[in-house]
Write a sequence for this structure.
């Protein structure tokens, strides 16, 4: 018994596969590449600011002192709407406090030590999350790319009836485009579960704003934020009347006493210093995909409730699992390494897809050096400019204009490589520069 | 971090074994249904074992082991691949014109608008309709909203694929219109939030 689709279906599926891949190709490649690099988001921060104070844990009283110091340092400024305390965890053993206007590292006694300087890590994350575009537009485009990866996986499987049968057949040393096609198809098959997980979670995160807008419009009187409230919990009612800092220490002591197996990753103060303030502790549960559970406390540090991300409705647990499943931070370094390997495979699948299409055209007698040069510029110029941005961060400092360096540099490479398509060996030059840039970055970072 | 359940490691081993059995099955000259079935069954068993041991986290970890084993098998295939000459497919995908053909830019733009804009709008509408149906069916507010959040990208991806599988413009428009039918009640009636 055979389950082979009709020839016309295969042909049309291949067309659909190519259309989606080629239209979204460069952005797909960029998002996959940056997603792979940003798996080490925490590690990049340690590379950027190696001397920042680190600790295995911090006492609740020290956190209280740090919160009060930061709030006191902002006296006279517009009050921050949120104050986040990043607690020391294995991946990033630092205590960092972020408000609407600043971010500072504190030591284990709760003293402010220095400003946080993680421009490179934040640039990478913003590039992956929203292509450095305004938030809503950028994240929606990236979400759309996730949905397109899902469509590419579906059309790719249907367009290649023997894709599973040939799943271990890798003719890596065959010429005539065979090796390239084999790499593309084999990596696609064996990263399929990873690809689907990444694509669907990414698409869900990215398109959530649009979906929430629709749900809000229909069911919550136009309030899109209200669509999230049943899942992640509600924001409190603001009351701007001044109040002293909330009792964070008591909340943390409660967590230690009642939830010793939960690793606290963040403490968030909503509307701190006002009568409407409340405390939210984010606790990570071992061997769970959820990013954590929210433990809600009143201003006096009295426990009120949990949001239900760990044990509430299935939908809450599923929604809370999308982030870790997407970014690969649910099993320490081994899972991160696996995500980097499969992430590079997915990036290579994006790169080889267009090369396969160009190769087919060349074998049909259509030589297109400018198209090839353009794709070379994307494939090799993008990592080169990421390396350049990283070098700029190390050489210039936290204020380096990373977005401008990356985008202007990438555009210049694209234009230059296309303009000099038949006069210079563009790919070879880009590869050399990428090698030199990566080596320099590695040396400077270490 | 607490140590995972021993069943998780057993499930991971079963997953790796499943990859090994499929590798063996697909290396044979003739298709072997018992071996194919055994390979896929082992992979399914591994996922079930991972889920029984550590829930969704366990399924994810077991999947990484299986994919890692397949990656190693592929690396071996690449390393032992002989030198040779070949010629890959030259199938046309009609993405660009050839031999001086027309670009048909207008047609391409319309296809893009149908798939990317109309398709996405219809998918959001379907997601909102699903949220309403879930509410009517008695699902909690959180479950209903999350169902819509997950449905939008899945529906859009499927719709994009099927739209591009249709060669005629009429078929594409009819498909989009057919997908609008479940959205119509939203304009006529409400659903409990």
């Amino acid at each position: 018994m055979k389950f082979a689709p009709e020839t016309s279906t295969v042909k049309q599926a291949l067309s659909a596969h190519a259309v989606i891949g080629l239209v979204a190709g460069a952005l797909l490649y960029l998002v996959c590449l940056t997603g792979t690099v940003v798996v080490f988001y925490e590690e990049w921060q340690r590379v950027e600011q190696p001397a920042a104070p680190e600790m295995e844990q911090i006492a609740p009283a020290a956190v209280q002192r740090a919160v009060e110091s930061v709030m006191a340092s902002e006296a006279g400024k517009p009050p921050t709407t949120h104050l986040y305390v990043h607690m020391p965890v294995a991946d990033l053993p630092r205590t960092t406090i972020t408000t609407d206007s600043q971010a500072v590292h504190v030591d284990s006694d709760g003293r402010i030590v220095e400003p946080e300087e993680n421009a490179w890590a934040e640039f990478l994350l913003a590039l992956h999350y929203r292509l450095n575009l305004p938030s809503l537009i950028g994240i929606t485009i990236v979400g759309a790319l996730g949905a397109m990866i899902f469509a590419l996986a579906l059309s790719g499987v249907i367009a290649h009836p023997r894709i599973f049968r040939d799943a271990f057949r890798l003719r890596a040393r065959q010429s005539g485009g065979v090796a390239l096609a084999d790499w593309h198809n084999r990596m696609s098959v064996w990263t399929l579960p990873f690809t689907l997980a990444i694509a669907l979670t990414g698409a869900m995160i990215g398109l959530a704003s649009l979906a929430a807008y629709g749900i809000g419009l229909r069911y919550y009187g136009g309030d899109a934020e209200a669509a999230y409230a049943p899942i992640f919990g509600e924001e409190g009612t603001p009351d701007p009347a001044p109040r002293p800092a909330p009792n964070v220490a008591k909340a943390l002591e409660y967590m230690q006493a009642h939830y010793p197996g939960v690793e606290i990753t963040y403490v968030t103060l909503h509307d701190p210093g006002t009568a409407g303030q409340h405390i939210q502790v984010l606790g990570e549960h071992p061997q769970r995909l959820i990013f954590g559970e929210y433990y809600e406390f009143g201003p006096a540090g009295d426990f009120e409730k949990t949001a239900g991300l760990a044990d509430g409705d299935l939908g809450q647990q599923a929604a809370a699992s999308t982030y870790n499943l997407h970014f690969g931070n649910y099993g320490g370094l081994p899972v991160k390494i696996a995500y980097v390997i499969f992430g590079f495979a997915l990036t290579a699948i994006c790169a080889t897809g267009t090369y396969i299409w160009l190769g087919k055209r060349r074998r049909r007698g259509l030589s297109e050096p400018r198209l090839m040069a353009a794709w070379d510029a994307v494939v090799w110029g993008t990592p080169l400019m990421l390396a350049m941005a990283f070098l700029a961060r190390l050489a210039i400092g936290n204020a380096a204009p990373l977005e401008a360096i990356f985008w202007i540099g990438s555009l210049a490479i694209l234009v230059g490589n296309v303009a000099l398509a038949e006069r210079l060996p563009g790919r070879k030059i880009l590869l050399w520069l990428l090698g030199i840039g990566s080596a320099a970055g590695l040396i400077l970072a270490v | 971090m607490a140590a995972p359940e021993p069943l998780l490691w057993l499930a991971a081993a079963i997953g790796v074994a499943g990859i090994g059995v499929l590798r063996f099955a697909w290396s044979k000259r003739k298709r072997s249904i018992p071996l194919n079935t055994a390979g896929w069954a082992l992979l399914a068993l591994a996922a079930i074992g991972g889920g029984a041991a550590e829930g969704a986290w366990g399924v994810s970890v077991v999947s990484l082991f299986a994919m890692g084993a397949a990656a190693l098998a592929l690396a071996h295939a690449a390393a032992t691949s002989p030198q040779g000459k070949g010629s890959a497919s030259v199938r046309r995908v009609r993405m660009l014109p050839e031999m001086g053909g027309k670009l048909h830019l207008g047609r391409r733009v319309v296809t893009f608008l149908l798939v990317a804009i109309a398709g996405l709008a219809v998918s959001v509408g379907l997601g909102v309709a699903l949220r309403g149906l879930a509410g009517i069916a008695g699902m909690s507010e959180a479950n209903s909203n999350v169902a819509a959040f997950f449905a939008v990208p899945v529906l859009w991806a499927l719709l994009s694929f099927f739209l591009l599988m249709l060669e005629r413009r009429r078929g594409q428009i009819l498909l989009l219109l057919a997908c609008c039918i479940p959205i119509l009640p939203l304009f006529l009636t409400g659903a409990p939030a």
